[in-house]
Design a protein that fits this description.
Elements lengths: L11 E5 L4 H12 L3 E6 L2 H10 L6 E4 L5 H9 L4 E6 L14 H24 L3 E10 L13 H21 L5 E7 L5 H4 L7 H8 L10 H12 L10 E4 L7
Parallel strand pairs: 1-2, 1-4, 2-3, 4-5, 5-6, 6-7
Helix pairs in contact: 1-8, 3-4, 4-5
Pfam family, one: adh_short_C2
Family: Belongs to the short-chain dehydrogenases/reductases (SDR) family.
Organism: Mucilaginibacter oryzae
Amino acid sequence: MADYTYNFTGKTILVTGASSGIGKQICLDCAEAGATVIMLGRDEERLKQLLYQLEGGSHQVITGDLKDEQFIERACQGLPLLDGVVQSAGLMKLVPLKFINAAFIDEMLAVNLRAPILLLSALQKQKKLKPASSIVLLSSVNGVAVGSLANSVYGATKGALQSFCKSASLELAKTNIRINCIAPAMVNTEGTAKISEHVSAEAIEADQKNYPLGRYGTPADIAGCCLFLLSGAGSWITGSTITIDGGFTAQ
């Protein structure tokens, strides 16, 4: 019988984008549930600070840039067998259509689409994923459910990620490995806080009123769903996208 509790004792979970925001919260929650967490990110100092905050004592830190394909290959070689992977690393930049250029497109694709695909490919090739393991990709409501101003390239990368998830789920199902996307709307993180540099506090307050539940999300809102998908409770879910948006796209 499947274990429907969030007891991750004995499980090893890899989390990318672990140094801040949603990724950081997922690390904290997975460790609290008993997992050994392998944190991957670019900011070594932040990752080390997080390491001291995690419950348990066997967690690991991997520092590097997921835009580097050789780094991905090397990082995967040093990994133990994994019960779960959460790909939370991502890049969002507001750029109006008339200012988009090839370099910007390449950067967004490299972080938001190419990196998660290459990482999963390397893990599969090197046989680092246990049978019945679970993979969670962080997508967005932007690009599939809704559009937003100056966010077209970001939305395109996230829409492509959801498309990739569907086809990848068919290949991975042969070994009972599941892969799903979580698509949040606006979540208060260090990254989205930068929007306040360009948008007034009044405008942000007004925008939150567009959410039926009256607020933006928190990293904990997303982490809770992530743990569900990593656990036995999500054992018959694959190739799907779960929207977490405070009712925004229900309107």
